[in-house]
Amino acid sequence: MNLSDYKGIAVFAEQRDGQLQNVGLELLGKARELAEKLETKEVTAILIGSEIEGLAKELIAFGADRVLVVDKPELKYYDTEAYAQAFKAIIEAKKPEIVLFGATTLGRDLAPRVSSRMTTGLTADCTKLEISEDESKRLEMTRPAFGGNLMATIICPNHRPQMSTVRPGVMQKIAKDETRSGMVEKFEFALDTTKLKVRVLEVVKEEKNKIDITEAKILVSGGRGIGSAENFKNLEAVAAEIGAEVSASRAAVDAGYIEHDRQVGQTGKTVRPDIYFACGISGAIQHVAGMEESEFIVAINKDKEAPIFGIADLGIVGDANKIAALLAEELKKAKVEK
Ligand code: FAD
Description:
Order of helices and strands: EEEHEHEHEHEEEEEEEHEHEHEEH
Bound molecules: flavin-adenine dinucleotide
Strand order of the largest sheet: 7-11-6-1-4-5-12
CATH architecture of the largest domain: 3-Layer(aba) Sandwich
Oligomer: single chain
CATH topology of the largest domain: Rossmann fold
Number of strands: 17
Helix content: 25-40%
CATH class of the largest domain: Alpha Beta
Number of helices: 8
Strand content: 15-25%
Number of domains: 2
């Protein structure tokens, strides 16, 4: 393999029902920054589906120089085999040196298939991506290892493309610029339908009214220190007064105080709200990994030595349940007085 044949960065612009997923836009932001350090500074978004070409403009506004549109009726719904075939054809034709996927359920399914078909490596769930300072200009992919106790930086020295998945919320979008210009290119390939093993007969959507904590501007998060599902109501009361959502540590989820989709951390979600209240949370590395990029962190813990105070902007030593109940009451009063 001649590594120097591979140039530029490709980002999977995941869409569902014609809606671009945020993580693809976040990865375009990161790809823009990485591309500045490479010889070929081009960032390509890969858009796969049916009748989705209209989304290309938005991808350009968020940093793509080129959008490769793979549009076929058979690609309307995600199908591992069909998407993997599309990716393989793109990589063989365009030879990107780096390919990035969001670590969504779909991205986690697709990326390993593609890397295996290309006989290259894949680093999953990266929290940091950098270009090495030496002349190799390799992608350095960092992710937690050994249960989050150390951070491993992984390289893919002998194969191309260098591939990684990144969870939603870890990277940041660049500001949308509708004046940016870019190319939109239709990519044709022969889909081998005899290899497709799944046929979608009907799509039945799960009825759910759940919130996505990664989108919340303020999070009131509770840990084991909150003590019970009943006590979480104090946090809900605070959240209701300030337009926040409630989230939690894994210990609180494991104890059954709250549902898993509200878990923050390495095996939960990565969040980056404007304000993060950590109530009765010790600050274990696996929790901190999911919230340390929050703009302003308020920690309430009865142990003044709790590690969470090490990353907090404001620390309150005390009983989180009492403080939350008082806070909810005072916030309610303040609203009434207004
Ligand atoms: P604890 O560590 O038990 O801390 C409770 C805190 O509450 C203490 O600091 C205590 O002083 C304080 N406290 C007690 N009572 C009160 C009170 N009344 N008022 C105020 N403070 C009080 N954890 C996550 O959160 N997210 C993850 O995604 C995650 N992934 C993991 C993945 C792996 C592979 C592993 C090994 C672990 C993972 N963990 C994760 C678990 C993590 O290591 C910690 O065990 C967990 O974060 C602890 O949760 P906690 O802070 O709520 O509980």
